[in-house]
Amino acid sequence: MRSLNETRNIVTLTVLLALFLSQSALAEVRIGLTIPQTGPYARQGEEQLKAFELAINQVNSRGTLPGGFISYEIINTQSKPDAAVAGARQLIDRGAVMLSGGASSAVAVAISAEAQRRGVVFMAGLTNANSTTGADAHRHTFRWYHTAHQNAKVLSRILFDRLGKDARYAYIYADYSWGRNVTQTMRNFVEAQGATTTYTAATPLGIQGDRIAGDMRKRLGFLVELEAAAKTKPDALVCVQFGSDLVAILQQAKKLRLNEKMTVVAPIIEMGLATEAGSEALDGVITTVPWYHALSERYEGSRQFVQDFEMVYGHKPGNAAATAFVNIMVWADAVTRAGTTDSATVIRAIEDHRFTLLTKEEYFRKWDHQGIHSVYALQGKKAPAGSQDLFDIIFEMDGEQAARTMQENPVTLESLPGDTIE
Fold first, then answer.
1. How far is CA 369 from CA 58, 68, 112, 297, 399, in A?
2. Residue 26: which pLDDT band, with cuts at 50, 70 and 90?
3. 119-123, 268-272, 292-296, 383-387: lowest mean pLDDT where?
4. Do residues 66 and 27 touch, judged by C-beta distance below 8 A?
């Protein structure tokens, strides 16, 4: 009897061979994948790449994409805007008609501006800052991932119920655009209702810090900030970190037994990070996600996605993978319906188009290109059944209710050739 790994390898090789034979006589449609392969967000880049490849193989196996089959090239963003823009330019110069990926809002904003300049569609990856589809929004960029506004709206609903509206909050945040944006948005929500802030600390991206303080910062991690925050006796500790930094701060908070003294909040999390952090560090932690694998018990689309991903890669997908999968499927569907890869035509085909993929019907709004779908709050289980059964879904907020209104996000996207004045 073959092992699961042997079966998985055979399936993968069979699919790839069939694709090679069927595509040999077809033209290619080149896309560019902008993912972090090194740096603090490399794990999320790896998860995105797995889902990108799964989705691309599924699209190619259907043979319905106008112009031929999808081929792709990868650039390593390193989670650095300058490197990401330089890589995006290379991908476009080599013929990419669409870009997708990323695990940093600073990177997403930088690529978005370059994609707009070059007239190429950008299906953004893990970018949570409001500005991606707000102050820095562009007509050529779409964002499926949820926003800092949605994090704060969902989290504040739960925290008000548990702690009261006059609770005390401490924040330890990554010192770049995303960390600052999420922290300020969260403060705006809770302080408007009477909450107070007892402590804030900004930390460098990557626990190693800068070159001079590198060794010391790596040894200490977030201990200095955590101990200082604890002394102010907050009701909630909000850890606005991601990637390896989030893993480190959650594990250190657990070692200091802060989970027993306050509610620990991680505004967003990804399955790979959760697994790395471990169930003890996640015990009681509250977070938000745009998608979680347990939704496979509710929705056929999620069930099929989890099954396909797990068959090939041996573990359940997280929301980094879900974001990448949705991006490819939505773009490919728009190209198929439009009959062309022309950016302006594809953009119009995506805008306000209703689709059902992983959960319920959803869409990308025309006026700001924000993906509209439910946002979920999770809480770390005290006694998980396994290494991937780490959270309970404790709350769901409808996408229309969670997202900013036009009054809250008054953006005007660029026009496209042929647009008519409404």
1. 25, 27, 12, 29, 13
2. low
3. 383-387
4. no
CA 12 to chain centre: 26
Euclidean distance between CA atoms 294 and 217, whole angstroms = 37
- Beta partners for 288? 268, 377
The 3-state DSSP class for residue 384 equals coil
Instruction: Specify the higher pLDDT residue, 346 or 26.
Output: 346
Residue type, 355: F
pTM, rounded to two decimals:
0.90
Grouping H, G, I as helix, E, B as strand and the rest as coil, residue 370 is strand
pLDDT tens-digit profile of 186-195? 999 999 999 9
- Provide the pLDDT for residue 280: 94
Angle subtended at Cα 65 by Cα 352 and Cα 46, rounded to the nearest 5 degrees: 80
Task: Report d(CA 409, CA 407) in Å as an integer.
Answer: 6
Give CA angle at 137 (115, 186), nearest 5°: 130
Question: Please, which residues have CB within 8 angstroms of residue 51's CB and are 6 or more apart in sequence?
Answer: 309, 317, 320, 321, 322, 323, 324, 325, 328
Gap between the terminal Cα atoms of the chain: 64
Q: Are 409 and 148 in contact (CB under 8 A)?
A: no
Whole-number Cα distances in Å, 356 to 79, 83, 302, 330, 333: 31, 35, 10, 10, 12
How many Å apart are CA 287 and CA 241, to the nearest integer?
Answer: 12
Q: Give the type of residue at 401.
A: Q
How distant, in Å, are the alpha carbons of 240, 337, 357 from that of 342?
A: 38, 12, 23
In the numeric block, which tokens belong to residue 176?
């770049």
Specify whether the CB–CB gap between 172 and 237 falls below 8 A. Answer: yes
Mean pLDDT across the stretch 238-266?
96
Computed over every residue of the chain, the mean pLDDT equals: 91
Beta bridge partners of 376: 289, 396
